[in-house]
Design brief:
The termini are far apart. The chain is built from 18 helices and 6 strands. It has 420 residues and is mainly alpha-helical.
Length: 420
């Protein structure tokens, strides 16, 4: 089990169903498509799952029909998926096996080297979330688009039709207990910036050590050195006291831990944890889909369109950003040049009935308040909102997202509480 596709997904679900025959589980999953789209077989008849076809799909002998794959990417199916899993699929899962299903799917996602790291991160974050339906639906809609059929290559090895390697032969998956800490650090050493996991020949090679920040069993010398940083009532075995470092940084830290180094690493850990929690939280926050059209226009604004700049005396930036001079300078520069242009784009789209600016502003304000409530610094809030716009708005340009966040700083949806 090392490749996420329809067959592997269906088999994991099948283990949790009371009615677990092949035809039932395939019909249950494909019902999302068949019940919402007009999908027909090669004879023009309504598509129906036979026992033979179900068996061949679960044994990776057939690919899903192209019409089903294509239908799975339509807005109608994407919008219906969560409710379908909530109302139809989840009621058939035996309650005491829900945790097993989540764990099995997470392991499959982690072991599939063909899934981009960012996509893995998104899926695993959903797996830790409160909505089982959203997790199952999004992973399914991804799995259904992957090749399902296995064939033999010239050496007799099983590969997919796209010649992607099958992963069960890999030495081992990364320990699931490490995954949260790797995601928290974005798989980059927070001390030196080296990758914590390297890919070689489709294998993930760990280049990290999960390092206790406060020593688990401090020596007398360490107690003397670290002093009040060691709290006898604190459990050093929890993830709050662990951080993923590259091997070189981990060895150097363990060799001799000074009080200053320990305090710095505790601060780094606190920042990583807060920002990871913020990223997971923002994944669940809604942003109007039409914002994508606004973001697309920003990089292509002409000098003439940007000629109507905002006067410095109209800026509110310094009233909202406290003491972070680089952030003030960057935000002011974007606002002066782009505020009027972005305002005109929103106004035009409102006149055309494409979006409602107040709805977008409310989305941004809700997300800002969530981030502010968990204690993020202003620069961290700005960065998290940029990544949120980039993901939700399907934007290629981080710069365009920085510009629009600056717009909402000026417009009072971001950092507005600081003026009170």
């Amino acid at each position: 089990m090392g490749r996420l596709c329809f067959g592997t997904y269906a088999k994991l679900l099948q283990k949790t169903l009371a009615a677990d025959d092949n035809k039932h589980v395939v019909s249950l999953l494909l019902g999302l498509i068949i019940d919402n789209e007009d999908v027909r077989n090669q004879h023009g008849e309504p598509f129906d799952v036979s026992d033979k076809h179900a068996s061949r799909l679960l044994n990776h002998k057939d690919n899903l029909r192209k019409k089903i794959k294509d239908a799975s990417g339509t807005p109608k199916i994407i919008n219906a998926a969560r409710d379908y899993f909530d109302d139809v699929v989840i009621p058939e899962i035996m309650p005491d096996l829900v945790a097993d299903l989540i764990a099995d799917l997470r392991e499959l996602i982690m072991s599939d080297v063909g899934i981009p790291k960012r996509k893995q991160t998104d899926f695993l974050a959903l797996g830790d979330g409160d909505s089982l339906a959203e997790f199952l639906a999004k992973v399914f809609l991804y799995a259904i688009k992957k090749p399902n059929k296995l064939c033999a290559d010239k050496k007799g090895m099983e590969t997919s039709d796209e010649l992607l390697p099958l992963s069960p032969a890999r030495p081992r998956a990364l320990p699931e207990s490490d995954i949260y800490l790797l995601l928290e650090a974005n798989s980059v050493c927070p001390s030196c910036g080296k990758p914590l996991v390297n890919d070689k020949n489709n294998h993930s090679l760990p280049g990290y050590a999960i390092t206790p920040i406060i020593p688990l069993r401090p020596t007398d010398d360490e107690r003397t050195e670290l002093g009040d940083l060691i709290n006898n009532t604190y459990d050093p075995e929890t993830n709050n006291n662990k951080i993923a470092l590259c091997l070189e940084c981990a060895n150097r830290y363990k060799l001799h831990t000074t009080k200053e180094e320990c305090r710095q690493l505790l601060d780094t850990k606190d920042s990583l944890r807060r920002n990871f929690d913020a990223s997971v939280m923002l994944d669940k926050m809604y942003l109007e889909e039409q914002i994508e059209a606004v973001l697309r226009q920003i990089p292509f604004a002409s000098a003439e369109q940007l000629s109507d700049t905002l006067e410095y005396n109209a800026l509110r930036i310094k009233e909202k950003i406290s003491s972070n001079v680089p952030l003030i300078i960057k935000t002011q520069g974007f606002v002066v040049q782009y505020y009027t242009f972005i305002k005109s784009v929103f106004s035009q789209m409102e006149r055309e009935g494409i979006l409602n600016f107040e709805d977008v502003a409310n989305d941004v304000q809700r997300s800002y308040r969530k981030l502010s409530s968990i204690g993020l610094k202003q620069e961290e809030i700005f960065t998290q909102l940029v990544e949120w716009f980039k993901k939700k708005g399907k934007a290629r340009s981080s710069l365009a997202c920085e510009i629009i966040v600056a717009f909402f700083v000026q417009n009072c949806e971001v950092f507005h509480a600081l003026t009170q």
